[in-house]
Amino acid sequence: MKLHRKSQLLIVVSTLLVVVVFAAISLVSYRSYSLNALQRQAQMGAEMVRLTVTHEMTEGNPEHKLPYMENLLGIPGLEGARIIPAQAVIDQMGSKVVGLKGEVTDVEKSVLATGQEQQQLIQGDRIRFIYSIPYVASSRGYTNCLNCHDAAEGDVLGVVSLNMDVTQQYDEAIRNTIAIALLFVLFAIVLAVALRRFLSPVEHATAELNNTVAMAEEGDFSGRMIRRSSDEIGDIAERTNHLMEVLDNSIGSITKDLDTLTGHRQIAERENLLHTTVSVVHTMAMVSQFKQIIENDRTLEDVYSRLQQLLEQHLHFSRYSFYEVSNSRNRLHAVFTGGLPEEMDLWCKKDVILNCDFCRAKRTAMITNSYDAENICPSFAGRNAEDGLYHLCLPMMLSGSVGGVLQVVYSEEEKRMVISELPVLQSFMDEAAPVIETKRLMQSLRESSLRDPMTNLYNRRFLEEHLETVTSGVLRRNSTIGILMCDLDHFKHVNDTYGHDVGDDVLKGACEVMRKTLREADLLVRFGGEEFLALLIDADAEGGMISGERIRKAMEEHSFKTPKGPLTKTMSLGLSVYPNDNDDFWECAKLADIALYQAKDTGRNQVIRYQDGMTSEE
Count of domains in the chain? Predict the structure, then answer.
């Protein structure tokens, strides 16, 4: 209920309550006062009758009471008076008892029986007041009732009953009560006016304060209150206006620059600017914190892992994918996915993996949303996975081109949530982009430092950094590593005869031959010059010899194409087994090198297993 209606209700109720209470009090008081006055008047008349009768009876003139009773009826308002003797008096006096007219009433009988005075107010056409008192035998005073009556002290000898017409007094009481009630109504009206004047500033101040606060909740701080009094209400109005001015000069100015602060029109166009400001500041704080965390992450994989946690735990997306874009190879690489059905590998068709131009978001560098156009990207494969699934793809810009694509897959029920979180997601993507670009560049530089630039094989530095990881896994499995040291026979002759360009081509071709021959789990390293080191994971001496012989034979059968015609080369290989030959990996590598030189010294184009006692010229 509004304050205005509450105040009106208060005034009306309080006015009626005052009138009713005062009128009730007046009626009760006036009635009580009137009854008391009538009682005293009737009591006085009845007592006079009793004394007169007693006196006449003492003088021996019982009949003299009749003229007195008739004169008593001449008193204004007194309609009747009579004496009702008790049955004992009638029995004693007989015919001497006179003056009884009419039947004895129940009230009079009650007085005769109890000896207690009683009164009765009878309302009809006329209002009558009947008062009856007992005539009690007494031997005290100047009269002695016991001289004439056969009665004991305190016996009821009769009843003196007066009948009074109080219609005029009743009407006068009604008129007086109405007059008093009118006075109370006038007083209530004055009270209502006073309350109205007192509550009016409070109502206006409350309404203006409510309107001002409502506007402030919507981000509009232009609302002001009018100071109508110099009391506390006026102070509230003045302080509220000052607060609105402060908010208008601070938060109000921020809301005008939301586009600049966020760079996303979707956020700036929300209806509640105050909530928008709070949301933007909160989002910016989270985005800034997210950026600081991923900047200190060690690897690019850690950054991607945090991005995936953000999608699931903060934004509550259950279906998603993130693709890395390789512009040089024109391919996409799925870094992580979520919510895929069991029968699907990706939310997109595999064509986009082999040719990233099939991805609309990558090709156009614009947000792609299938809710706006159902078939906007034909490469989306999740349309038939569940009924009513849509996809939203956000390109991540790295160095002026698309370096990644974030894909969110959602249902009809999740549409509003996805659209509302899109600006937040875009903010995280924008902040994560330079960090991901830096991490990718560092990873690329690190990869290049760990690879041989000509053959693209890992170099000795890579082996030094990752050796512990490789050997610890083998030792944990209680397995072995076959170490093959490989060297092209008479490679210097190629450089001297055909030139270094042909020599480089031969080295590249030899790498391809060895790659195709080795298993996926094996590791091939360019150890230096024309020398290569192959790590045969989980291979013993027998398996190492088989792999080495396979490499030797493939190299012997391979023909290198040169400007001067086909060229064939052979390869010598030395084998050792870690940790069987030595529990130090590098010592095992030296033993494989000794076996290699043994192969060269004994005719080349062969694989020799290291045996105790072998030596080599260093």
Answer: 2
